[in-house]
Design goal:
Number of strands: 12
Largest sheet: 6 strands, mixed
Shape: globular
Oligomer: single chain
Helix content: 25-40%
Strand content: 15-25%
Length: 350
Amino acid sequence: MALPDQKRTSVTYADAGVDISSGDRTKQRIKYLAQKTFTKQVLSEIGGFGGLFKLDTARYKSPVLVSSADGVGTKLKIAFELGIHHTVGADLVNHCVNDIAVQGATPLFFLDYLATGHLDGEITEKIVSGLADACRANGCALIGGETAQMPGFYADGEYDLAGFIVGVADKDKIVTGARIKAGDVLIGLPSTGLHTNGYSLARKLFFEVAGYKAEQYVNALKEKAGAALMKTHRSYLSIIKKLTATDLTVGMAHITGGGITENLPRILPKGTAACVELGSWPVLPIFEHLRELGNVEQEEMLRTFNMGIGLIAVVPADKFKRAKAMLERANEKFYVIGKIVKGDRKVIYQ
C-alpha cells in the first residue's frame, strides 16, 4: 500500500544510533596517533581499505611471516567500571607481541578492532593512544584497524577490543621447540599480575564471592582491588631478543589462558615432558588471595592463571650459565622452575 501523501520526518543513520560525523572526527584524532608509530616500511595512510607494508627482504635470507590475533577479554569490564581506558591497548599489543616473539619473530605491524554501541571520542582516543604507545615501544607500526559503532549490541559505556599482529623471522631462526630434549632447564620470567587471562574467575571471586568494590583497598594485596586486576600485561620482547640473538633458548612459551599446564606442552616435542617445581618462584599475592577467596583447587589455579610466571624459556643445560649471566646483566628477574624430562608432552608438577 502507498503511504499517505503527507510530510514525513526524514530518518538518519544518527537516529539509529550511528553518528557518522562524530565517528569521522574521532578517526582524524586516531589517524594522528597511528602515524606516530609508522616506520619507513609503511606505504599507506590510515583510512584506506587496507594497510600497505613493504617487507625489507634484504634483512632476511628466507623471511617467514608470523601472525597472531587476540583480545583483551573480560578485563575490559574492570576498565569500564574504573574508567581506565589507556592501559588496555598495551595489554592487547603486548599480548600479541609476546605470542609471535616466542617463535623468534620481530613485530612489523599491528591492526586493531574496536567495537562499541556509541562511539565516545574521548574514550576511543585514550584506547588508541595506549595502542600506539605500546606499538612504538615494541617497534611495531599501527597501520590500520576498524572502529565499529553497533548500537543495541553493546551496553552503554562498553566496548570490545581485539588485535592482529604480523611479524617476520628468518626460516632457519624460527624457534619451534623441536630441539628441546631431556635435561634442558626451564627458566621462568615473572608476570606483572593476571596479564589478560583468568578474569572471568577473578571477577567472580573478587566482586561476587568477596563482595569487593573496584575502588576498595584490600589488605592482603596492599592496594585497591581494581588496581591489582588492571596491572598491564608486560612485553617480553627485549629479553626474548637477547635470548634468541645468541641462540640461548630452544623453545619459549607465553603463559596465557590455560596457565603453565596448557601452554608449556605446546612447544614440547614428542617424547618429552616438563617437570615444574612448585615453590621455585614467588607466587604473586593476588593469586594466593584468589585461591583463598574461592577455596580454589591448586590444579584449577595452575590451568587458569599464570601464577606469577608470564614466560618460560627452555635453555640447554650447557648454555645455562651463559643465559644466567645475560639475564643478570639485563637486570631481568628470573627463576629456575624445573627441567625437561622424558615423557608424553605434559607438565608434571612436583
